[in-house]
Design goal:
The complex is a heterodimer of chains A (about 110) and B (about 110).
Chain A (H helix, E strand, L loop, with lengths): L2 E5 L2 E5 L4 E8 L4 E8 L5 E7 L5 E3 L5 E5 L4 E6 L8 E9 L7 E2 L3 E6 L1
Parallel strand pairs in A: 2-11
Antiparallel strand pairs in A: 1-3, 3-8, 4-5, 4-9, 6-7, 7-8, 9-10, 9-11
Chain B lengths: L4 E3 L2 E4 L5 E6 L6 E8 L3 E9 L2 E5 L6 E5 L5 E5 L8 E8 L7 E2 L3 E5 L1
Parallel strand pairs in B: 2-11
Antiparallel strand pairs in B: 1-3, 3-8, 4-5, 4-9, 5-6, 7-8, 9-10, 9-11
The chains are: A mainly beta (about 110), B mainly beta (about 110).
């Protein structure tokens, strides 16, 4: 079975600072990995995905994530935080295969301060 | 607009009642997934349909059922509702493996 662990339920950064949200995965087979963002009272929006091509994945809104097999990690980063980045972020994993279900982490709430 | 439409957006009902949540997937997507999001349980996978057939089942209660119709829209039926069923219910759709999901904006169910 696949699972993801998100370290830190709350992360606070200053505007302009580096954003680092941590995600470690567990999977017995090569996984697909995803990051989603959820703004208040909205659904989840796909930020980026890893599907066994390039290990450094670039997504929307300046976010990127690097797949590190040796560390079983898929951390999300952004060089410079903006106030509009304040939201909840979810890491998710699925098996490779036809339309497999996603298993989500517990989420990390990002707060951006002035 | 993500392309996945969920109705209604809000629903308030009494314990013991039955409700139906509706989802229209993004055009071309054959898979529909239902998730429940609550403060204490996080995002829980309920059930998946692929082109009208049940494909996978998660932590879905026996009081809950779903189906996907020939036009690919899906309905989630929740019966004998309890206070603990209050949550956000999301529908998502996907076109295939590795594509990720497109989520709807959810139905907020409040059981009183």
């Amino acid at each position: 079975a696949q699972s993801v662990t998100q370290l830190g339920s709350h992360v606070s950064v200053s505007e302009g600072a580096l954003v680092l949200l941590r995600c470690n995965y567990s999977s017995s087979v090569p996984p697909y990995l995803f990051w989603y963002v959820q703004y208040p009272n909205q659904g989840l929006q796909l930020l980026l995905k890893y599907t066994s091509a390039a290990t450094l994945v670039k997504g929307i809104n300046g976010f990127e994530a690097e797949f590190k097999k040796s560390e079983t990690s898929f951390h999300l980063t952004k060089p410079s935080a903006h106030m509009s980045d304040a939201a909840e972020y979810f890491c998710a994993v699925s098996r490779t295969g036809t339309a497999s279900k996603l298993t989500f982490g517990t989420g990390t709430r990002l707060q951006v301060t002035l | 607009d993500s392309g996945v439409t969920q109705t209604p957006k809000h629903l308030i009902t009494a314990t013991g009642q039955r409700v139906t949540l509706r989802c229209s997937p993004r055009s071309g997507d054959l898979s529909v997934y239902w998730y429940q999001q609550s403060l204490d349980q996080g995002l829980q996978f309920l059930i998946q349909y692929y082109n009208g057939e049940e494909r996978a089942k998660g932590n879905i209660l026996e009081r809950f059922s779903a189906q996907q119709f020939p036009d690919l829209h899906s309905e989630l039926n929740l019966s004998s509702l309890e206070l603990g069923d209050s949550a956000l219910y999301f529908c998502a759709s996907s076109v295939g493996q590795g594509s990720g999901y497109t989520f709807g904006s959810g139905t907020r169910l409040t059981v009183v």
